[in-house]
């Protein structure tokens, strides 16, 4: 689904019944397009996409909004063009992905507090409106080998790629052999914090949005996104996310059994998911980068990134 600025302008003016100003296309979003605008003295965002369930997740997520997990209020969801729209309040700030080295270091405490807020959220509120997975957390993890209506055809794509499918099979075997260490977590997961979905101002998180990938699982899974994707972001090069998390958990008195093994399983799972997605979109360079990073997680060794770094342009 693709919409253009002019069409969005016409739709919003007609739907809202007034003049829309400062309309601009916003970056990010694989499954929807976002546009910032002003109407009736308010800064708003309109997103358009084919999957209304993504927007419903945004609406429910606002129940968990707090100082450490600020979530923009969803004002309206409806049908538009050949899909759906969602209008919400707009939050401002620098994208977490785009912080420079010093800014990223200063943001570490805020990031860890946001992960705490996710861990402490009552997933029962989410499940009451949207339901919960009917399979175990381990089964969810192992379902990474499956295809779905959004990401499909990637098995054949991996077979045809320069990388091949064998590295994926090797990673899956590792996950199958170690997934028993992963507890049946019942925590709210965002699952997409490092894809231009978090804004920062003055070392504080000002917005966490786009909850389309959200679900239930072990809270350490969120940390694994930061430990896995460190080589993709030059601003993170000097950050030991695992060490920072260990110190933070010790300070707040949180015992995390099997920390290393759980985290390694989640890093491998994230890598496998990235391999599948890059097979789907046929990005062979990023597929190679995810493959190298995934296989090196088996022994926990960090090597030179094989993908051009991003996030500090």
Give the neighbour order of strands across the main sheet: 1-2-3-5-4
What structural class should be given to the helix and strand makeup? alpha+beta
Q: What top-tier CATH class of the largest domain fits best? A: Alpha Beta
Q: Work out the helicity level.
A: 40-55%
Q: Please compute the radius of gyration using only Cα atoms.
A: 20 Å
Terminus-to-terminus distance: 28 Å
Strand composition percent: 15-25%
| Number of separate structural domains | 2
Order of helices and strands: HEEEHEEEHHHHHEEEEHHHH
Average pLDDT confidence is: 92
Q: What fold name goes in the CATH topology slot of the largest domain?
A: Aminoglycoside 3'-phosphotransferase, Chain: A, domain 2
Description:
The longest helix has 23 residues, at 259-281. The protein folds into 2 domains: 5-89, Phosphorylase Kinase, domain 1, CATH 3.30.200.150; 94-296, Aminoglycoside phosphotransferase (APH), C-terminal lobe (Aminoglycoside 3'-phosphotransferase, Chain: A, domain 2, Alpha-Beta Complex), CATH 3.90.1200. The two termini are 28 Å apart. Residues 308-313 have low confidence and may be disordered. The protein is globular, with a radius of gyration of 20 Å. It has helices spanning 5-16, 52-61, 101-120, 123-130, 137-142, 154-160, 166-178, 220-229, 241-252, 259-281, 284-296, and strands at 21-26, 32-39, 42-49, 74-80, 83-89, 94-95, 187-189, 198-201, 204-208, 215-217. It contains 11 helices and 10 strands.
């Amino acid at each position: 689904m693709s919409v253009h600025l002019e069409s969005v302008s016409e739709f919003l003016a007609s739907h809202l019944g007034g003049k829309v100003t400062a309309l601009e296309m916003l970056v990010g979003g694989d499954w929807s397009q976002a546009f910032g605008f002003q109407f009736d003295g308010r800064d708003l965002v309109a997103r358009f996409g084919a999957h209304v369930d993504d927007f419903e997740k945004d609406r429910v997520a606002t129940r968990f909004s707090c100082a450490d997990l600020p979530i923009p209020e969803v004002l309206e969801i409806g049908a538009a063009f050949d899909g759906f729209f969602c209008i919400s309040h707009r939050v401002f700030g620098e994208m977490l992905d785009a912080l420079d080295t010093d800014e990223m270091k200063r943001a570490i405490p805020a990031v860890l507090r946001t992960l705490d807020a996710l861990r402490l959220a009552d997933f029962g509120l989410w499940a009451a409106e949207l339901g919960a997975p009917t399979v175990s957390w381990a089964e969810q993890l192992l379902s990474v080998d499956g295809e779905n209506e959004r990401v499909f055809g990637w098995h054949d794509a991996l077979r045809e790629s320069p990388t091949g499918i064998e590295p994926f099979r090797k990673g899956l075997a590792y996950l199958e052999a170690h997934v028993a260490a992963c507890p049946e977590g019942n925590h709210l997961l965002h699952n997409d914090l490092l894809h231009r979905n978090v804004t920062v101002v003055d070392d504080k998180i000002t917005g966490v949005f786009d909850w389309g990938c959200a679900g239930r699982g072990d809270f350490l899974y969120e940390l694994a996104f930061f430990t896995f994707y460190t080589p993709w972001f030059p601003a993170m090069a000097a950050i030991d996310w695992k060490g920072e998390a260990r110190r933070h958990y010790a300070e707040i008195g949180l015992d995390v059994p099997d920390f290393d093994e759980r985290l390694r399983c989640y890093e491998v799972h994230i890598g496998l998911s990235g391999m599948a997605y890059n097979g789907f979109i046929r990005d062979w360079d990023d597929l190679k980068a995810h493959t190298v990073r995934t296989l090196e997680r088996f022994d926990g060794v960090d090597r030179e990134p094989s993908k051009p770094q991003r996030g500090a342009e």
